[in-house]
Every structure is written in C-alpha cells, then in structure tokens.
Amino acid sequence: MSTLTIVLLVILVILIIACIVLYILGKKAEKKQAAQQEQLDAMAQTVSMLIIDKRKMKLKESGLPSIVLESTPKYLRRSKVPIVKAKVGPKIMTLMCDAQIYPLIPVKKEVKATVSGIYITAVKGIRGPLETPQKKKGFFARLRNR
C-alpha cells in the first residue's frame, strides 16, 4: 500500500471516531435540555405584567440578583442576554427572556406572560393579539425590489 492510501485511511478512521463522539455528546446534551425544559414547565406560572423596558445587556449590567451571576459560567457572563424590566403587581422586576420570544414582547403594554423563576417563556396579549414585528429584509432582497 502506498503512503497516500495509508494517510487517507487514518484520516477516515479519525473522522469516523469524531462523528461517533459528537453523536454521543449530542444525545447527552439533548437529554439534559429535555430535563431542563421539563423543570421550566413544572415551575411555570402565568402572570399579568406591564412591560416597562426591554433590551439586550450583559449579565453584570442587567441588575439581576448576585446568585444568578454566580451560578452562570464565567464564559457566559460577558455575553449579552435579553433582559425585560416589568411591573408585576406593585413590584418592578428584572427578568430574563427567551431569545425567540424577545422580539414579540411589546414595550409599554400589558401582557400575560408565562414565567418560570426569573425566566419568561411565553407571552400573550391581554387586549388582543400581539403585533409581530416584520423581519428585516436582507441586502440582496432590497436590491431585488428596486
């Protein structure tokens, strides 16, 4: 056998091993995510709240409790997360939001939100449906319209 075929076989074996390892790690992560989602669903409460402000901020600047900052991994502390300031009853609270729900949340309006701890998982409008924001068109889509 030539050296080229030996090198190709070694690369093929390494790729197969890498695929198997990634498959196993993906299955473990999927199980872990399902367990976390189950916990979030078990703790969920429906609350009506007035949304004061929403923005994407770093965790350190967001004003969340120190326990939240300590429990997050160090590499995620500098990443920006969707933060919502809302008036829940007489109290003003700082809550985290799911990234898919963040664009749906209207500012200065009252909504019914499903909250699990300090995490907003779902939002419904109290007075009618929520307005869905239009997606921004890409550069080439705008050029095509001209």
The largest pleated sheet is described as:
5 strands, mixed, barrel
Helical stretch tally:
3
What would the average pLDDT be, to the nearest integer?
89
Structural class of the helix and strand makeup?
alpha+beta
Helical content band: 25-40%
Which ranges are low-confidence, i.e. pLDDT below 50, for 5 or more consecutive residues? none
Give the ordered list of helices and strands.
HEHEEEEH
Label the overall shape: extended
Topology (SSEs and partners):
Layout: H1 3-42, E1 45-58, H2 66-71, E2 80-88, E3 91-97, E4 110-116, E5 119-125, H3 139-145
Parallel strand pairs: 3-5
Antiparallel strand pairs: 1-2, 1-4, 2-3, 4-5
Features:
146 residues; alpha+beta; five-stranded mixed β-barrel; 3 helices; extended
Structure in a nutshell:
This protein has 146 residues and is an alpha+beta fold.
Structure, explained:
- The chain has 146 residues and is of the alpha+beta class.
- Helices cover 36% and strands 30% of the residues.
- It contains three helices and five strands; from the N terminus they run αβαββββα.
- It has helices at 3-42, 66-71, 139-145, and strands at residues 45-58, 80-88, 91-97, 110-116, 119-125.
- The protein has a five-stranded mixed β-barrel.
- The protein is extended, with a radius of gyration of 22 Å.
- The model has no long low-confidence stretch (mean pLDDT 89).
